[in-house]
Structures are given as structure tokens and as C-alpha cells.
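Database export, one record per block. Field names are fixed; values are copied verbatim from the stored entry.
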Amino acid sequence: MQEDWPSHQQQDPLHWVAFIQAQLRQMHALTPSTVMQTHLQHLQMASDTLLSLLTPAGVEQSVRQAEFTPRATGQGSPLRLLLVEDNPFTQKLMSRLLTMRAQHIAVAGQGEEALKLLQEATVRGEPFNMVLMDIRMPGMDGFEATHAIRQWEAESARPRVPIIAVTVLNDEADRQRAKQVGMDGFHCKPVQANQLFAEIEQLLPAPAVSEVERALDDTECALDIGLNMESLLKTVEDDWGLLGEIVDLYRTDAPKQLQRIQDGIQRQDPDLVREAAHSLKGASGAFGKSTLSFALAYQLEQAGRNRDLGQAHELLQQLRHSIQLMEQALGAELRKHSSL
């Protein structure tokens, strides 16, 4: 039976949201047309997000579960997001959610406006750290806007800004096209705060170079390089022989990848830098993702992916030093064990 609308005396907004949710469920059950389904999805997303805004404790818990905390970007500056969304109501709702984690949010209502805002912000030295891109928009849609952004970045030698699709589309073909045009993530509406924040966190840069430099200046070698022997031994199930073999393999492979990175920097070949740094990041990760060598290799990989090698030489020198320190620390631990 159809429910009556709440009376105007009903002051609790949660009651209204619950009523809207119930009506939406009934409408979905009627097998609506494709056009109507799209409108219902927009209404469902707005209703879900509104419910989150009316229950902030639930949102905060969701965000904490994602282990996303406000932090500076790789350059130590506030987090700046560009939201591209044509629906005015959705603009307000998403902006409200994003203000819990971003210090600056700009909104574009269509693809052409997004491209203009991104170009202007980059030129004046205030680039966006990330773009959240709707796909279905009038005029230039999200796919076309992303392609235009990637083309402009390549032609003007600008760093690559991460772009996450935020859309009601969920077909595999849409996901594949998103990758083809250069999108880095794909988030389906209705927006799930914890999942979206986790994806944003994953695409943000690694710790800034200044933080790495401070770590290198510390006196405790094991602390400098982030090497946790207890955790590492658990990984190899306390097999010191296996650990020795892994260290030997690393000592053989690391110099080759360092040389490839150096060649890529000299040739101004960001793809070579990215590939070699990715290989070295994987090898360094065998000793723990908390190690300094892993973090530095990740930064070089991102530099190659963003086609920005401005700090690559400095990062390479720090990476060489961190690898040398880690090999020395591992060698000392292996010698200590063999003498027992």
C-alpha cells in the first residue's frame, strides 16, 4: 500500500529521508524505463548522501574505517580537488562530503569548464591534486574532458593529475573506456564515503622529499631506512637462509634498475624511469613497504608516470643512499645471526 507523505508537522528530516527511500524502493520494483532508471539513480544517490549528511557520526565512522586522515600532499600543500558534476544538487552534496577531507574544492558543471579551471589553476601555480569526474554531462562529457586534459598535459609538458570517475555507470565497457582515456579510478554512485576517500588516498603522492631527507639525517640506521627485522623475519618464517638468498638477489638486481633509472633521466625518458622504478619498488617491498627505499622508488615511479623528472636526479641519489644503508643493515643482521 502506498504511504502518505509525512505531515508538515513532522520536523525530523530523517523521517522524510526514510520516506523517500521507501518510495524509491517501490519505484525500482516497477521496472522503470532506461531514462527513468537514470533519474532514479540520481535521486537514490542524493537521498543516500543526504542521509549521510544528517547522520555525521555514521559518516565519520565510515571515514575512519577507510583510514583516511587529512594530510599534506607530496609538496606539503593543502589538498585541492576539482569536482566535475552537472547536477546542482549533487554538486552541493558531494562538496559537503569532500570538505571533511579537502581544504579547497572547485566545482565545474561541465567538461569544458573543468578543462578551463584546471588549466588556469595550473598556470598560476595552484594545480589541483585530483579531479573527480562525472561522465554523463551535456556538451563535453567526462570521457571527452579526460581525453582533453591528458592531451593538454602532454602538449604543454604538465604533470599528470589523477582523475577518478564518479558515475552511475557501472558496465565493464565503461570501466575499460575510462582507462583508455586516462582515468585513474572508477567510483560508482551512490557515493560511499569510505571507499571514495580510500581511493583518493591511494592516488595521492607519497611523503614529501623533505620528509625523506629528514629520515636520512637520523642517526639510527634501522630507523632511517624503515627496516623492521621482526616483521621481515615473519615474512620468511624465520628462515635466515631464505632471507640471505633474497638479499643476494636484491644486491644483484638493484644496481641494474638504478642504472636504468639514471639512463631514463639522462635521456628524459619518463617511461623508462617509471618502469625501472616500478621494478625496484617491487624488489624493495620484499623487505617491507615501510622501508625508505620503497617510498623513494614509489616517488620516482610517480615522477615517471606524471612525466615530471624535475626532482628525479635528487630522488635517485637519495634512493642509492637508502639502498646502501639497507644492504648494510641487512648484512649486519645476517652476520650477527651466523655468529650465534
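Remark 1: The CA atoms of residues 80 and 129 lie 5 Å apart.
Remark 2: The first helix runs from residue 13 to 28.
End of record.
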